Amino acid sequence: MTSDTLLADPEKQASWFERVRLAHQTETAEDYVELIADLIEVNGEARVVDLANRFGVSHATVNKTITRLKKEGLVNAQPYRSLFLTDEGQKLAEMCKERHMLVVDFLKSIGVSNKVAEMDAEGIEHHVSKETLQAFKRFIRLKKTMTGA
Known about the structure:
With 149 residues, the chain is mostly helical. Helices cover 74% and strands 4% of the residues.
């Protein structure tokens, strides 16, 4: 095998890595707004302590991230109060939840266990393209049609 068959065109490969870097920049915000929305739906509120426990990070880390999310217009927060999503934060949370569920459903449709599908979706959901998500949807619909589910 030659090196030409192992490596993509440098510009093409650079664009792939750039896409991954951009996904890494947004995944923390996406995870936070999605979890805040879930906590509000289930508990009626989202608190810093809940986020810290569920993410396995310190309160200081959560506070730092919430400060950034406030600046980005995604979260409203006041000291010693619950956290709330702005309209923009709510839209992002809904989009993230939909994408997450689609990835989970796809993984389960190809035989991945529920537990592993949920765990793997946490990483995949931030890096999957719209084109791939559409292919996941088509596959799930086709499989449901074939199995009558």
